[in-house]
Design brief:
This protein is an all-alpha fold. The protein contains twelve helices and no strands. The radius of gyration is 19 Å and the shape is globular.
């Protein structure tokens, strides 16, 4: 961990350039540009709200369903986009790796930071919907950065794992596409956790994103400070996956050159 922090300081200019490059490439020749970061979650939420609230008659007692849905989507979309980009980060930067020495973990890190910029922008439409729908704001919202930090650390850990596996197994790009879809439906984004049969609830609680979303919803929707065990679960899952990801990545990074 100490070596990574020191290397980040040493290569912070490169990290900045990688994030800046991704940001420019994403919105190149786009008419709306950065506005898509604001519109995309709103459009996605509108479609899902239409389908699940009208067709499947999903409702949340005493809770604004739009805010409930949007909170889950904003968090899951960050993980989905950042983990997908991190997975291909090493392979897509082989030309750089092959020419000069660069700490390879900087590539998954840059993707998570890049998507983090979009994540911050998506908080604008989230809070716009909160205000429009009349969900009261409270001082507990100042605790939300804890959930966002845990989300970033967990995603970074998964990014290290996925980028490592993708170097040795290119099929992972296709496999993970199926996995992320299954993961989305196994995370209570569109539906209430109470709808899940009791015998399956433990399986759903092993999902780190469940706890991060639960933390955020407790504050935004219920005006409650999450209990201590929720804080522990969020931070615990984040640190465990980060440490596993760092170990897996560090152990295999010297072999990347032979497979990329």
């Amino acid at each position: 961990m100490k070596n990574i922090i020191n290397s980040i300081k040493k290569y912070k200019f490169l990290l900045y350039q990688l994030v800046s490059r991704d940001f420019k490439v994403k919105y190149k020749r786009s008419v709306l540009g950065v506005l898509w970061s604001l519109l995309y979650p709103v459009l996605t939420m509108s479609v899902m709200a239409l389908v699940f609230s009208n067709m499947f008659k999903v409702s949340m007692p005493n809770v604004n369903y739009l805010v409930y849905l949007m909170t889950g989507l904003v968090i899951f979309n960050y993980y989905s986009e950042a983990s997908n980009l991190s997975m291909s980060s090493v392979v897509s930067n082989f030309s750089l790796i092959n020419k000069v020495y660069i700490p390879k973990y900087i590539f998954p890190l840059s993707k998570c930071l890049f998507v983090g910029i979009n994540f911050i922008l998506t908080l604008i439409p989230l809070y716009a919907i909160i205000l429009i729908t009349g969900v009261p704001l409270n001082i507990n919202h100042l605790l939300l950065p804890f959930a966002f930090i845990c989300l970033f650390l967990f995603t970074l850990g998964m990014g290290f794992i996925l980028s490592t596996v993708a170097v040795f197994l290119r099929d992972m790009f296709y496999i993970y596409g199926v996995m992320i879809t299954l993961w989305m439906y196994m995370t209570p984004i569109m539906y209430d956790f109470a709808m899940i049969p009791a015998k399956f609830q433990l399986i759903f609680k092993l999902n780190p994103l469940y706890w991060i979303i639960y933390f955020a919803r407790s504050i935004i929707l219920y005006n409650e400070i999450p209990s201590l065990n929720v804080w522990i679960y969020c931070l615990g899952f984040a640190l465990v996956f980060l440490l596993i990801g760092m170990y897996v990545f560090k152990k295999n990074q010297d072999k990347f050159i032979y497979y990329v």
